[in-house]
Each structure stands twice: as structure tokens, then as C-alpha cells.
Design goal:
The complex is a heterodimer of chains A (about 240) and B (about 450). Chain A has 12 helices and no strands. With about 240 residues, chain A is an all-alpha fold. The chains are: A mainly alpha (about 240), B alpha+beta (about 450). Chains A and B meet through helix 5 and helix 9 of A and helix 5 of B.
């Protein structure tokens, strides 16, 4: 990780603490708490909101950084990879729980702008699914924006669950993350999509609509009046 | 004083076989009444029982623990249910690598790759409520790290509530099972607290670690309620040991270690210690590379009330002597009988069965050595447990649940091993304990 990135993370984490004591804290007060100048901060961030936004973006950066410490990450199953994503983010949010509880909904879930956390989260999902060798071939048809959005939505739900989780060490949230990712893996590893696709293809190939559209049966029956006229002319 | 008779083992077996006929007849009669459904309000309808067991198995990890608690994995259930209950699929799902990592971070404050010199992400053993990983501490100590699946404690409470609902459908008086269920629930909940297990481990280390018994050491600084770190014991579990085709002497030596460990726990009663390792499951023991008995799991440790334990132990000499007057008194005090067997046929059936089963159970103490590999004896025990009156009327003190588990578990272990055991010393221990407590209970 670059030094500049480390510094940006340090600033954003300090900003979360300032925010909790005063939502309209000044950059100067933040700079004072970090023993640096306001100019140094402005060199990295245009305004207060961007610093706070970076806190969420940096959770994804820290998550990606954690992958390099796992020797056997490439052997992880889909469920383990998704679980790692969910749980590393939860661990990271846990360290700034109060700030996350106050701001997650507004700054991530309902943010109408192009949100960096959401973008990185979805990019990571794409990577996890694309790199997984065990996913059934036909499931690629449902690997699209809708899937990434639904998993992101599910993650928002996990955060809402975690926010209200009073179990010891938030173990119920861990169990939920685990069960969610296992469920997703089950969907994508099962042959049901492959088999369903085969069945659909077979039914399509044997339907009258399909027969109409294959070259062998092009003439009977024709759905196109122009083709019929052409055939009549040819017969003459 | 000697409460033990000096009759021969063969004579004993004749008694046992006679008793088995009574038990079989009772079981046949009972099963017939189940199948006929002839309006007997107290009879358990077989179909209902099947439905209940089918529902019960869906409780997975908790079901397995409840089944183990009631020793129904030791041959009490018909084969089809026993197989279902012991299948690995009824354990909780394995904890995946990401979750293991996160649990350790939450519990111990950092990720395993930062805490340990090495940490094997693949579990080396699975348990019904968690799994065990091998690791090396930064100082080079080889350890086993037991990790509990998150939320198990909550699951136990809700599963027990569900199991209670199911069991109430098959017992004649639902209130009678409250005590038993509560006993199992409390034991299971205690089992989820790994701090308590660590402390038990240390107490057993103080009491039993010796030239013949090896116990792991609890590493407190790497342990919490949900993560238990202990020193690693290398050795073979029963199945691995048997696969290595050991000689009869080796089998008997291993069996003797088990037998002596069990009786040394009884011996401690003279020092007012009534704490027992109450989960005599083969997975909890191993034969270490230096020939010791390794005792590796302390999740289920029970302290029995003194009066119960005295009476339980008294069952051994009274059965071997066939002292029916004393047996009858003990059965009444221990809640096995609810009426007079002389006048009530149902009580008579219970009495006859318990009397003869008890005698068969006490047979190993009859002479100075006993061969658990004796196929005739194994068959007797198997048939007795199989024909045990499956009753919709729970009987006996609630502490029987775990005393039976310990004792029956020990017998099954030794029978599987086919060990010949020297029992003279253990008989002396039982006599010594009974003598030491006799004066106290005679006064009461």
C-alpha cells in the first residue's frame, strides 16, 4: 500500500472521530488533531465530505490489502471468498461502529452520487465470480448488474442486522454472513442452472416456433408474407 | 466387608440370559401394543414415534448432542434411527476458512496469521458444536485450537425448546420430562463455555496427568468462551488404533488404561471429589505415542450429588449378590420404580428388566479379570440395550442420564476394543468408596 493511501486512511479515520463529536468539524481542527497542516489535508481531499466518503472507500482498499496476507486465498470457494469480503468489512466497520451506525445509510446505502464504496464492492464481486473455476457454465447468464446489485443490497441488509445485533461479539451477524454466502455458493455451484438451461434449449429446439425459424423448415409455415410471395413466384 | 459375591462368571451369564428373556418378552409385548394401537392411552404409537424422531433429527448438532446425552447412540434406538443420529451430516456445518479467521480476530483480537507462527486453516477434527485446528504458537508450542460455530448457544436453547415440544408428544405425562430436559440443556450450555472447559482441563491435569494418563494443558491467554487453545497431544484414536492391527496384549493395555482412568475418578470420591469426565466417546480419547491414555475433551464434565452417586455405586454389589430387598429399596430411592412390583404388573415388568440388566452390567466386577471381547457378553449387552423398554414414561433420577453415559460409553469402548481387563483393583476401589460413604449414609 502506498504511503499516500496510508495517510489518506489515517486522515479519514481521524475524521470519523471528529465527526462524532461535531458533525460540522473544520479541516483545521482535524489537522490539529493529526498534528499536520490544513494544507496537507487539502492536498489530498477537496472538502470534509470527501474525507468522510473516503473512510468507506478505504474499507475496500484495506480488504484488498488483506488478500495478500492469505496464502491460500486462491483455494477459497465462492462462499469463503464472499464470506471473507463480508466479514473483513464487518470487522473493519466494527472498529468504527458508532460512525458506521450514524452514517452508513446516508453515505453508502442511499447515496445518490457515484459512490466509490459501492463501485469497488461490485467490482470485487465481479472479480470473485469471474475467477471462480467451480461456478457452473450456464450461471454466467445471471451474472450481471442485477446480481451485483442484489448482493450489495443483501450486504446493506447485513449491516442493518449487525447494527441491531446484541449477541456476544456480534456472532449472530457472523453466522448470518456465513449462511448468506453459503446460500449463494449453493446456487452457483449447483447444476440446476446448467440443467435448466439444457432443458430450456431442448424445449426451444423442439417447439414449433423454433422449427419455423430453422432453414430446413423455412417454407412451412412461413410467417412472412414476402417469403410466401417469393415462393409463389418461384413456383410459377 | 465384601459386598461382592464369589460366584463364577458362567453362572452369572446364566442369570443374565434368563433376564434377557424377560426383557425380550417385555419388549415384544410393548412393541405389539405400539403396533396395535388398541386404545391403551399410555402406549406410544409407533408412527408418532417415527415422526417425532424424524423431526428430531432435523435439529442437527443439538439433536446429536441430545441423542448422545440420552446414550441413544449406544444402542438404545432401532438401527435405522441410530444410523441417522450418528451421521456426520447431523453435525453443524463445518466452519469455513473465512469464518474461522474472523472468529479468531473477534475472540483473540487479531487474525490467526498474525497471532500464530503457523495456523492450519483445514480443521483436523469436527465436533457437533465446533471444530479443531492445529497451530503453532510464536514460541514454537504445538497447539490445538477449538473454535465454536457462532450462535451455537442460542441455537441450543431454541432447539431444546423444540425438542421438548416433540418429546412431549410421546410421553404420557409431559411434566415428567422437564427435569431431564433441563439437565441436558444446562449441560449443553455449559459445554459451549470454553473457559469452563479450560478450567476443567486444568483440574483433570492436576488430578490425573501421570505415567499412564496424558492431558493437554489449557493455554488461557489464547482462549475465550468460544475459542479454546490447548497443547497438542499426538496419538491414535480408537478406530485408527484398531486399523493398525494391534495384538491382544496391546488392546488389553489400552483398555486397562481406560478402565483405570474411570475407576480412579471413582476413587477420588473418598476425597469428596465427585467430578467425572462424562463423555466417554471414542473421539475424546487417544493412545499417545508414548503409550499413555490421552484424554482430550473436557466439555462435558459432571459433578454428581453424593447421595445419588453412593446409591448408583451400591447398585453394583447389590446386583451381583442378587440382594433383591436392597435392590428394590435402591430402585425406589432412585426413582426407577413408581409402585410395588408385587401388586402392579407394569412395575413388575420394569423391575424384572432392570434387575437382570443391572446384573449383566455388573458382571465385569464379578471376578478378578473380565474379557470384554467375549462375543457372548457383547451380544447380551447389545440385546439388553436394544430391548430396553422404550417407554413413554421416563424413569429414574435425572443424574442417571450422565452416569449411564459414562458407564455404558466405557463398556462400548472396551467391547469395541475387545480388551481383557484386570478388575480386581477396581472392585477394591468401589468397595473402598462404598465403605467410606456407608457410615455417612447409614446415619442419614
Amino acid at each position: 500500500m502506498k504511503n499516500e493511501t496510508r495517510l489518506k486512511i489515517k486522515i479519514s479515520e481521524a475524521a470519523t472521530n471528529r465527526y462524532l463529536s461535531n458533525t460540522r468539524f473544520t479541516i483545521q481542527s482535524l489537522a490539529d488533531s493529526l498534528d499536520m497542516s490544513a494544507k496537507d489535508i487539502f492536498d489530498l481531499f477537496p472538502n470534509r465530505r470527501s474525507i468522510l466518503d473516503y473512510f468507506y472507500e478505504s474499507r475496500m482498499i484495506l480488504y484488498k490489502d488483506s488478500l495478500s496476507t492469505l496464502e491460500d486465498y486462491h483455494e477459497f470457494s465462492l462462499s469463503e471468498k464472499l464470506n471473507h469480503l463480508f466479514l473483513t468489512l464487518l470487522d473493519s466497520f466494527e472498529e468504527h461502529r458508532e460512525f458506521t451506525l450514524v452514517t452508513y445509510k446516508e453515505m453508502v446505502a442511499l447515496d445518490r452520487r457515484r459512490n466509490a464504496f459501492r463501485r469497488l464492492f461490485k467490482e470485487e464481486l465481479k472479480k470473485i465470480f469471474n475467477d471462480d473455476p467451480q461456478i457452473t457454465r450456464s450461471s454466467c447468464i445471471i451474472q450481471n448488474e442485477l446480481l451485483w446489485k442484489s448482493i450489495l443490497l443483501q450486504f446493506h441488509g447485513l449491516i442493518a442486522f449487525w447494527a441491531n445485533d446484541s449477541s456476544r461479539m456480534r456472532e449472530n451477524s457472523m453466522a448470518l454472513a456465513d449462511k448468506w454466502s453459503s446460500f449463494i455458493e449453493e446456487i452457483f455451484y449447483t447444476k440446476i442452472i446448467d440443467k435448466g438451461f439444457d432443458l430450456g434449449k431442448y424445449l426451444w429446439m423442439n417447439s414449433s416456433l423454433s422449427k419455423c425459424m430453422t432453414s430446413d423448415n423455412f417454407n412451412v409455415p412461413s410467417l412472412c408474407g414476402r417469403d410466401q410471395k417469393y415462393q409463389e413466384k418461384k413456383n410459377e | 466387608m465384601s459386598d461382592f459375591p464369589s460366584t463364577k462368571f458362567d453362572r452369572g451369564k446364566i442369570f443374565a440370559k434368563t433376564g434377557l428373556k424377560v426383557g425380550t418378552n417385555y419388549a415384544k409385548h410393548y412393541l405389539k401394543s405400539l403396533a396395535s394401537g388398541n386404545g391403551d392411552k399410555t402406549a406410544l404409537h409407533k408412527q408418532t414415534a417415527e415422526e417425532v424422531f424424524s423431526e428430531f433429527t432435523k435439529l442437527r448438532g443439538t439433536a446429536l448432542k441430545i441423542a448422545q446425552s440420552f446414550s441413544i447412540d449406544q444402542g438404545f434406538l432401532p438401527d435405522e434411527f441410530a444410523e441417522v443420529m450418528t451421521k456426520a451430516q447431523y453435525s453443524v456445518p463445518p466452519i469455513n476458512r473465512s469464518l474461522v479467521r474472523s472468529i479468531i480476530k473477534k475472540e483473540l483480537g487479531n487474525y490467526p496469521e498474525q497471532l500464530f507462527k503457523s495456523f492450519d486453516t483445514q480443521a483436523i477434527a469436527a465436533a457437533s458444536i465446533g471444530q479443531v485446528h492445529r497451530a503453532t504458537l510464536k514460541d514454537g508450542t504445538e497447539v490445538a485450537v477449538k473454535i465454536q460455530y457462532p450462535g451455537v448457544r442460542d441455537t441450543i436453547s431454541s432447539d431444546i425448546a423444540l425438542a421438548k415440544t416433540l418429546l412431549k408428544r410421546i410421553v404420557s405425562d409431559p411434566d415428567t420430562i422437564e427435569d431431564y430436559i433441563e439437565e441436558v440443556k444446562q449441560t449443553l450450555i455449559v459445554e459451549t463455555d470454553y473457559i469452563l472447559e479450560g478450567k476443567s482441563m486444568e483440574r483433570f491435569h492436576e488430578r490425573f496427568a501421570s505415567q499412564t494418563v496424558a492431558t493437554p494443558r489449557w493455554i488461557e491467554e489464547y482462549s475465550t468462551e468460544r475459542v479454546l487453545t490447548m497443547t497438542y497431544l499426538e496419538g491414535q484414536h480408537l478406530n485408527e488404533f484398531l486399523k493398525s492391527d494391534p495384538s491382544d496384549e496391546e488392546k488389553s493395555r489400552y483398555g486397562q488404561l481406560m478402565w483405570d482412568f474411570f475407576h480412579n475418578q471413582i476413587k477420588a470420591v473418598t476425597d469428596e471429589i465427585l467430578e467425572f469426565h462424562a463423555d466417554t466417546h471414542p473421539g475424546n480419547f487417544l493412545l499417545t505415542d508414548d503409550g499413555k491414555l490421552g484424554v482430550i475433551d473436557y466439555g462435558c464434565v459432571k459433578t454428581f450429588p453424593e447421595d445419588f452417586f453412593y446409591k448408583y455405586l451400591m447398585l453394583l454389589p447389590t446386583h451381583l449378590n442378587r440382594d433383591e430387598e436392597a435392590i428394590l429399596k435402591l430402585y425406589e430411592e432412585l426413582g426407577v420404580l413408581k409402585g410395588d412390583p408385587e401388586t402392579e404388573p407394569r412395575e413388575k415388568q420394569f423391575y424384572d428388566f432392570a434387575l437382570n440388566y443391572g446384573f449383566t452390567f455388573a458382571l465385569p466386577y464379578l471376578e478378578d479379570s473380565f474379557d470384554f471381547g467375549d462375543s457372548e457378553y457383547r451380544d447380551l449387552i447389545r440385546r439388553y440395550t436394544k430391548n430396553a423398554p422404550i417407554t413413554n414414561e421416563p424413569r429414574g433420577n435425572k443424574h442417571f442420564i450422565y452416569s449411564t453415559r459414562v458407564h455404558l460409553g466405557l463398556y462400548h469402548f472396551l467391547m469395541k476394543l475387545g480388551a481383557r481387563i484386570e478388575t480386581e483393583k477396581s472392585r477394591e476401589i468401589v468397595e473402598e468408596v462404598l465403605q467410606s460413604r456407608q457410615s455417612i449414609f447409614a446415619e442419614k
